[in-house]
Amino acid sequence: MHTSDVVVESRARVTLHFSLSLVDGQVIDSNFDRSPAAFVVGDGSLLEGFERKLLGLQAGQRETFVLSPEHAFGQWNPANLQYFKREQFPQEMVIEPGEVISFSDAINSELPGVVQAVEGDKVTVDFNHPLAGKDIHFTVHILQVEPAV
């Protein structure tokens, strides 16, 4: 089997260029103008929904897929809105809509939240992924596929 015949499968090493964009064309991330990315399928580098779209592809292929929120960054969940009192933040901290604030969860992992609103002494913070609820255009150019070992 020639390496050009190798297809993307679990544990294969894949080198690729990719682009993520919104339906309106706004580019979220792309490495087409940088060095390609390399990862092993199943190592957690890519969300499972993105990996599934690569399965069966070979080096040289270019594809564009549309991933629904369920297969990309999830649906927006109102339960991920949290409400805080302004006094719970340091007085000198800038608290205004759009600000990203880092919180610690129960196991001290960093958890970013985006300030949605400040009304009086009430601060609303959204812990949904910023791309939750959005369809994502995923464009790939597979450069190399090395078989699983």
Automatic annotation (TrEMBL):
Which positions fall inside the PPIase FKBP-type domain? 11-103
Sorted alphabetically, which InterPro entries does this protein's record hold?
PPIase_dom_sf (IPR046357), PPIase_FKBP_dom (IPR001179), SlpA/SlyD-like_ins_sf (IPR048261)
Keywords in alphabetical order: Isomerase, Rotamase
Q: Reaction(s) catalyzed by this protein?
A: [protein]-peptidylproline (omega=180) = [protein]-peptidylproline (omega=0)
What's a Gene Ontology MF term here? Answer: isomerase activity
The UniProt record lists the EC number as 5.2.1.8
The similarity annotation says: Belongs to the FKBP-type PPIase family.
Q: What is this protein called?
A: Peptidyl-prolyl cis-trans isomerase
